[in-house]
Write a structure and sequence with these properties.
The complex is a heterodimer. By secondary structure, chain A is an all-alpha fold. Chain A has one domain: Orthogonal Bundle (Arp2/3 complex 21 kDa subunit ARPC3), CATH 1.10.1760. Helices cover 80% and strands 0% of the residues of chain A. Chain B is mostly helical. The longest helix of chain B is centred in the C-terminal third of the chain and has 34 residues. Chain B is extended, with a radius of gyration of 26 Å. Chain B contains ten helices and two strands, in the order ααααββαααααα. In chain B, β1 and β2 form a beta hairpin. The chains are: A mainly alpha, B mainly alpha.
Chain lengths: 230, 293
Amino acid sequence: MSKKVISLIIFFVIIPIGILIGATLLEDGKYNLISMFVMVFACIPFFLSFERRKPDAREVLIIAVMSAITVAGRAAFAFIPAFKPMTALVAITGFKLGPEAGFLTGAVSAVTSNILFGQGPWTPFQMFTLGILGYIAGLLGKTKWMESKISLLFYGIFSGIMYSMLMDIWTVLSLGNGFSWIVYGSKIITAIPFTITYMISNVIFLWLLTKPIGDKLERLKIKYGVMQTT
Amino acid sequence: MKSLHDFHPLVIFSYFFAVIGLTMFYMHPILLIISFTGATVTSFLLLKKSFLKSIKWLLPFMLVAAILNPLLIHEGETAILYINEQPITVEAIVYGFAASVMLIAIIFWFSAFNAVMTSDKFLYLFTKISPAVALLISLTMRLVPLFGHQIKKIMYAQRAIGMDPSSGSVWHRIKAGTRILSILISWALESAIETADSMKARGYGLKGRSTFSLFRFDRLDGFALSGIFILFIIQLLCSYFGWNEFYYYPTFSPIVWNGPMIFMTISYGILVSLPIFIEVLEAFKWRSLKSIN
């Protein structure tokens, strides 16, 4: 009961106050601050619905395992910049376990890896970006599309571009001029090598891992009757 | 008196929330310098050697930001040269420099935050906001080293049957590496179910379960928290009255040392130097205690 009250307070008091302060005090383009709040608040509904549902211990553990594998994957490829299996692993979780599990795996692996490697102002952005990519993957996983290699290729490219573009919003805002399309455009152009690396790594890891990990998750779902997504 | 590390997580979080938020908000050069100095000294006091190592790349970074901004932004009155008939202005250069000072100050504050806000404190706070997600995070944090350990075990076993990922052709290595990963995931998911059942058997999710935590909110914490809160509100009010306003374009607005500005500078300075004060006091106390023994 008290949790419900707190979540209602967050929704109807803190968010409006945040936006109000944002609109009045921060009128001259303090977008870096506002955008961080927006990213944090954007994650809250997903967390709350998980909280409300009173998740089963098995569900919690499976999501934690997938997040831990994602974090370990980032650490394992730490020596190659931008070439990471994170997005692919989050997407596979989304495909097989549904949008909510996809979002949570993405967001939790972003926070956890930043606890281990250092928090920064980019943490909320990473949380939301990886989370929403997992969520989209979860929605796509409900259709039959994601079983072919071609659609995996497209999803890999799409998620690479999306990751790059969402994270570049932070890069532009950190320069302090507020948001300008020229600077954003130039950032996106300078980030092209990274974007391409994201896309290639996403596609490679999706192709390599979707079938084996997907099968294991599928088997787990059948064997223990958990996380049925229909 | 306590050291910075011994304060209640809520106090630590509120402090860094206030300071990082204000640092991101203020573009006024004097307020920027105050926050930058505070961030530098604080993270030096907390990190010592690793801080000195991390500052090497900052100077080139600041220079790049100072160059990049005037190339992209052509506002400002005082042009010093023209490239492709686009003016390069002093204002844009200074703005780029100021923005990079702000960014570095934020990075330093975050590195101090990472040093003080250890994972147990972070999780303690997160549990209050969202217990289920905090549980997810803490499980994940435990599983990462566990997987590292398990990977080693699997690797030794695989090596014994000739699937050594650290020798042989590239294709062989990839094949051996993928096998290890695959074995790890199968094992991890199966043992996750076991862990979950064991959690359930011990009463996960039941009502009336208590939790243990090391953190106690004592009088000093209350004192510190209310101090931070008051100083933060003062800063918000000052900004509400527009005392922090400073324009870089079309040309710099003058810095006037009137009452409000001095008041704001001093109160901001107190807020920013709180951790330095605490750490230095603690260091002196430690030294005097040591000399007695």
